[in-house]
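Protein Record: Sequence and Backbone Structure Tokens
======================================================
Tokens: labelled as protein backbone structure tokens, with as many entries as the chain has residues.
Task: work out the structure tokens from the sequence, keeping to the layout shown below.
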Amino acid sequence: MDGIASMQIQNLNSLVDTVRHEIIERYRPGEDDPYLRILQAAHIEDDEYSAT
């Protein structure tokens, strides 16, 4: 994977993590909240992504 794609994945993961933490702090949902699970699932590991 090239450096630009890796950097964009890191940027998107950072954004998703920031939004998730803001939601947790502001609304205090339970850990089984389906929207938090969606945000957690949206996090992409660098080694799981391959640009083909």
